[in-house]
Amino acid sequence: MSRDTLSRAEPVTPKQRAPQRRQRRASRTEARNRRAAAGFVLPFLALFGLCFIAPIVYAVHQSLYKTERTGPLGLGGREHEAFAGLANYAHALSDDRFLTGFGRVLLFGAVQIPLMIVLATTLALLLESAGARGITFFRSAFFLPYGVPGVIASILWGFLYVPGISPLVKIADSIGWDVDFLSRGTVLWSIANIVTWQFTGYNMLVLIAQLKAVPGELYEAARIDGATAWQVARHIKLPLIRPALVLTCVFSIIGTLQLFAEPMVLRPLASSIDSGFTPNLHAYSEAFVGNNQHVAAAEAVLLALVACVLSFGFLRLVGGRAKERG
Amino acid sequence: MTRPPVRYRIITASLLTVAAIYFLVPVYWLIVSATKNSADLFGTFGFWFSEHPHPIDHLVDVLTYDHGIYARWFANSVLYAGIGAVCATLLSGAAGYALAKFPFRGREAIFNAVLAGVLIPGTALALPLYFLFSSMGLSNTYWAVLIPSVVSPFGVYLCRIYAAAAVPDSLLEAARIDGAGEARIFGGLGLRLMTPALVTVFLFQFVHIWNNYFLPLVMLSDSDLYPIQLGLTSWTGYADRQPVLYQYTVGGAFLSVVPLMVLMTVLQRYWRTGLTEGSVKS
């Protein structure tokens, strides 16, 4: 997804012969254009400003202030806002639990995203291969979990994880396998399973869409040349679905950093999930349990920054490599 | 076309079947469990029905518990997602149309800001948005969830790309010469030509709002305003003390999943076209 292909400029006004008339006409068209465009864009822009730009500005502002009390020893008295510089950021970055949470989601992403993308690609290639039967059924079955909201999916899998209700634990017990999906060591991967379950089918559909855009003659030609199904997949299909792969990776990275609903819902079931399990959970408890808006704002800003750096960084990385290859 | 050897077809079919089992088993468990009461939930094997399944009675229990609060949550979800997605679609359609069809200064700057908006994680915004809205006295109202839901940068991006390709300039010019106003041209011509993209934006936004948990969680404290997701988690939170809520949570989850899954399956075609529009053309 490179910038210049996204923003395609349009040629506009039809050409006129007489230069004077053209000028007058052009300036009138331009004024008219500007007025009409403003009418169409402004409603969206106003709300975009309120819901995207203003919160960012407000969060940055909040993150630079702190609440002080005028009373003795900082107790009682009236509260007032005082400039704090980068103190809130220092506080957030020196908080071990916040940093551990970051490390945890990065580890999560490094393992879960490749796994999910490989699974989605495999399923897409299998469904698009000549050997598949019952394609409509399988495609719907794989895509179905995307229609289950993250919270419901977590409640569902939570029941499948928790001993006492879970038939999975019961089956494991009966074959003598002592399994605990919610222990300190396993709970992160139990969450990874929920996310994989939910989004593999969606990513698969994106990849299938791109596969369908590949002209059929290309496959036919390769087949006539004697290429095996595996060679066609490896050397023709995979390179061609690269843009879609990049897209799904970027959205997965952004999604992973925001990890919240799954650990939040599983928390009552798993004591191994603390209030700093993910950065988002940490910011949330800082704001609503610790009642510390300013630190929470700093953490939200940090989270948005890391998401931007990672997703732009990833785009640069794959973009650069594509250029090297020509 | 030559058919691949039997060996390949068997391997393909078995891999696909294993994957289908993985994706369908939790849904199957939900269907089975929605017919059980709390005792059977704990006492019987999860992947098979109990001896006395009572699907209808249990679902009625869910709907009538606590003066029908579940129905209210459901209505709230429909309201947030329905109104939010309709408004988001119209706003994105208009903005995308203007960004594609009217050259004006600052157009690229606006478009780049919108693209940046696509990449900003929504939950990183939700907390600051809550601070902002509560300072404006808007938190804990319907507006607190509705207003952010009508803004869809991704929708604008999709509509711009689609309008650039699907709305011919010559047609607009002809309508202008006929004396039609810009608003009428957009309403009569633009919207009609952009319909496939608009359907996709509507679907995306509907599911996005329906699934959104973090925003209502931070914004709302009055349980009368909750969407389903938030309501169900409040039930699981009390289930320790009131075990019957386990049963209601399962029933409620079942009821909330059904309409969306039907929607997904029926409208799969639109998802595909929409995604092609977004990813392949770049």
TrEMBL record, chain B:
Known CDD domains for this protein? TM_PBP2
Q: Which GO terms describe its biological process?
A: transmembrane transport
Q: Which UniProt keywords apply?
A: Cell membrane, Membrane, Transmembrane, Transmembrane helix, Transport
Among PROSITE patterns, the record links this protein to:
ABC_TM1 (PS50928)
| Mode of membrane association | Multi-pass membrane protein
The family assignment reads: Belongs to the binding-protein-dependent transport system permease family.
List the protein's name. Carbohydrate ABC transporter permease
